[in-house]
Each structure stands twice: as C-alpha cells, then as structure tokens.
Specification:
Structural class: alpha/beta
Radius of gyration: 23 Å
CATH architecture of the largest domain: 3-Layer(aba) Sandwich
Distance between the termini: 29 Å
Number of domains: 2
CATH class of the largest domain: Alpha Beta
CATH superfamily of the largest domain: Zn peptidases
CATH topology of the largest domain: Aminopeptidase
Length: 477
C-alpha cells in the first residue's frame, strides 16, 4: 500500500458527503438536483486548486410530475397505489385518460385488443436466461463465488423483458399499466426503470404484484379506470460533463478515472465522492502519467448521450468521442494506457426472500470488469488489507459489458471497472437507500482503487498490455 486514503478521508467523512449528496434531491439527468450536485463537486475540485474543464451537452428532458390510477366500480372511485413511472414513456392531459382495463397475456401481439382503452400487462421476473449469456467470470475472492445461475432482477427484467410500448402506441392504446411479477412488493417500489429507452410517446406506470392483482381482477370485470401521468418537458436542457487532470511527469500517456454524476439514490452515483477522495490523496504526489478524473452526465439518459465514435452505449462514450486528443494516441494525441471506472460503492447485500426483501448480513458481491489478465492481477493485488470483500471479476462477453467502463473497453483501453449491481440500484425512495449503504466498505473500496492507480503508474506501458476483445459464447472459467 503506497498511499493510505485514511490519511485524507474517513468513513464518517464519506457518509457525510453521501448525505450531502442526498440533500440535493433525486439527481436525474439535467434536473435541478443534478445540476446542484455537479456544482458541488466542481466547487470541491476548485477548492483543491485544480482547473476544471467543462463539456456542456443539451437534450430534451422529460420529468414526471404526478401519477395516479383510479378504478371505477359502479359509483365508487378506488385509487390504487403506483409503484413508479416508466421513464420517458409519455404523458396524459391533466385530467388523465379513461377507458376499459384490458388484460393482455402477450403484449407483443395483443395490443390491438386494447385499442382506445388502457392495457394491463404482466412483466415477469426474467429469471430464465443463463447468466453465462451475459457474463464471463474470471475469478473471485474469496474463491468459489459465482453469479446466480440465471440472469434476473428488476434492472435485467426491464432491459430485456420490457413492455413493448411502441407497439401499444401503434395499436392506439391510451395508456399501459405494467405489473411487476415475481418480485417482493418492497423491491418493486420506486424502480426508475428502464432508463435506456428513447421517448415512447405513450404513458405507462408500474405497480407492484399485490396492487397488480387488484388491477387484474378489475380488468377481468371489464371495469373502467382513469389513468393519469402528468409530465413536463424542458427543451435544450443542459447537462454537464467535466474533468480535471493531475500529475504527468512523463509526457504522452494518460490514465482515465471515470464515473457518472446522475442517478437515483445514495449508491447509484456515489462514484464522484470516491473520485474526490482519490484526488485529495494523489493531487500532490509524483505521478508518472497524467491522470484524468472524469465526471460524466447522461448515465440516466443514454439515448441522448451515447456516441459510437467513443465506444457507444454508455455516457462516457460522448466524452471519449469529443476528446480523442486525450486518449487515442494518434497524430500526436495523448495515449490512455489504462482506465478505472468507479460506480456503486458501499453496497450491502439485500435479497428477495419469498415475499420479503431483506438484508443478508453480508456485503454485496462486487462485479469488476478487467480488460486483460494483467489488469485482473493488478486488481487482486490491490485487494490487500481488505476486511470487507466479496468480489468477482469479469471479461466483456457476447458484446455485453455493463457500466461506464464499457466505452473504455470498446475503444481498447485496458480497464478495471467496478459496477456492483444490487436490485435496489435504480430505486427512488425517501431513505435514498441509506439502509443499504456501508461507508466502511466504501472506504476500503477507495483504497483498492488507490492501490490500482499506484501499481499501474509504476508499471511500464508494455507490462500493462493491450485490452482483450469480447469473449464469445461461453468460455471456461
């Protein structure tokens, strides 16, 4: 351990900074809360005497303001709880839209049955696709850790088994009620999912399984309902990515350390706080290479921020496309020899247990992509001294690589990318999910990445090696 982050930050300080972040509000891309958080982080950097470079981006921002579902049973009005909105789905007039509830067993082909009415669709927990389709495991610590056999959870379900809203719109459906199936009600609450889709042009809401049963029974009785989802648009909304640079005794090479600033709760986007801790510890240290600390916007608005020229899919790709002079090594440009992506720190393990969603008493399994075998070795060496650790490294597989490390991997920068993925990652809640956060774990994870940075900085470029390609099909572990 070359430098000890505890000389610069404590677990209590990290918790205080996370609580400060929470006080800004839910930091959806381009919102006032997001902009205020960005200004806070930028102020911290400037307070350290660092120059901050800014990249403003503009997009059309949608934000839900009010949502409700009311059943009409004879002369009674029965309001049923809404678990969350379907982001960038659509909106109704202030008074909502009304129609008969129509239960569809297969929304892919049956939306025409709900034409002029309100469709009700079940969204079953994915839990059928093998994890080997999406993940290629390298190794773990402690040994013997593996991903669940099947790929499941709210995020995976909403990305793969999502309601086909575009078909509903074409069929003339007024609105869609999406019912989570196979998840505890508590887990379904507040899920801001899916966040990867373009604007759909038809309003949709999520309800939990218990509420969903009430809606299904109402549909079976051909009951009428009023569905309301009011939202507002902000055209040409600004969302800012920014970065600072430290070190660089040797000219010509860079190391990129990136995270995102937008998200839903205390775990989803606490990466900026980790980067601040690393910068405090390293800013006055002798570093061979120039280190770029990058804070990107757009992680929760990927359709407007991804850029194929910068590796596509995730928001960091937009910055990479705009700043090739800082990483691609061509025509006198600087060459990025490594990248570290840091997201979702301090996650405690909570799991569905029947109808409950509860803590297991352990830390969550860390998912860490490593761009080649050498980076994998570096990461495991950097774990030295950890007392809280359950970690599993992965290789990009079948052209899938989750998190903001993917653009680095796609442009062939060897990376180490933390992207722990608890089921509550995208939840909006009053608690900000603080009950699922462990600041002592976060501190140890920051130390791990400090170790990675210093190990890499002391290595010659040839020893770091080249980024591997995606593995295809299923390779042996």
């Amino acid at each position: 351990m070359k430098y000890n982050v505890q000389d610069y930050v404590s677990a209590d300080m990290l918790r205080q900074e996370v609580e400060t972040m929470n006080r800004f509000g839910v930091r959806l891309t381009g919102s006032a809360a997001h902009k205020n958080f960005v200004e806070y982080i930028r102020g911290q950097l400037r307070g350290m005497g660092l120059k901050v470079y800014s990249d403003p981006y503009f997009f059309n921002r949608w934000e839900a303001k009010q949502a409700s579902i009311v059943l009409h049973d004879m002369d009674r009005r029965i309001e049923v709880p809404v678990s969350s909105v379907f982001p960038y789905s659509g909106e109704t007039p202030p008074g909502g839209v009304s129609g008969e509830l129509v239960l569809l067993e297969n929304q892919r082909i049956a939306y025409l049955r709900a034409r002029g009415n309100i469709a009700v669709v079940r969204v079953n927990n994915l839990n059928v696709l093998s994890s080997k389709i999406a993940f290629d495991e390298r190794r773990s610590f402690p040994e013997g850790l593996h991903l669940p056999e099947n790929y499941s959870g709210p995020v995976a379900t909403s990305f793969v088994n999502f309601p086909f809203l575009a078909m509903a719109k074409k069929a003339g459906v007024k609105a869609v009620i999406c019912i989570w199936q196979g998840f505890p009600d508590e887990l379904a609450e507040g899920q801001y999912l899916p966040f990867i889709m373009d604007y759909q042009g038809i309003p949709a809401l999520w309800v939990n399984e218990t509420t969903g049963q009430t809606v299904i029974e109402a549909a079976e009785k051909h009951m009428q309902a009023t569905f309301t989802l009011e939202a507002e648009w902000e055209n040409n909304c600004e969302a800012e990515s920014f970065y600072c640079m430290i070190g660089g005794e040797d000219k010509g090479e860079t190391v990129i350390v990136n995270t995102h600033t937008d998200g839903t709760n205390c775990i989803e986007e606490n990466g900026p706080i980790a980067l601040l801790a690393l910068i405090r510890a390293l800013k006055d240290k002798p570093l061979h290479r120039k280190h770029i600390f990058l804070f990107v916007a757009g992680h929760f608005r990927l359709p407007d921020f991804r850029d194929v020229e910068g590796g596509g899919v995730q928001a960091t790709s937009r910055w990479l496309a705009d700043h090739k002079d800082l990483w691609n090594g061509k025509r006198g440009h600087l060459k990025a020899v490594a990248g570290l992506s840091i997201e979702h720190l301090g996650c405690l393990d909570w799991q569905p247990r029947g109808k409950q969603y509860e803590p297991t008493g352990d830390v969550a399994l860390e998912l860490v992509y490593t761009g080649n075998r050498i980076m994998d070795d570096i990461y495991f060496s950097a774990l030295e001294g950890r007392t809280k650790v359950r970690t599993l490294t992965l290789r990009g597989h079948n052209f899938l690589h989750f998190g903001e490390g993917q653009p680095l991997f796609n442009v062939r920068i060897p990376e180490i990318a933390l992207v722990t993925a608890p089921d509550s990652l995208c939840v909006v809640s009053k608690s900000n999910e603080m009950e699922k956060f462990d600041e002592a774990l976060m501190l140890q994870q920051i130390q791990t990445f400090m170790n990675c940075l210093t190990i890499i900085d002391d290595m010659p470029t040839k020893a770091i090696g080249h980024c591997e390609l995606y593995s295809l099909l299923h390779l042996k572990k």
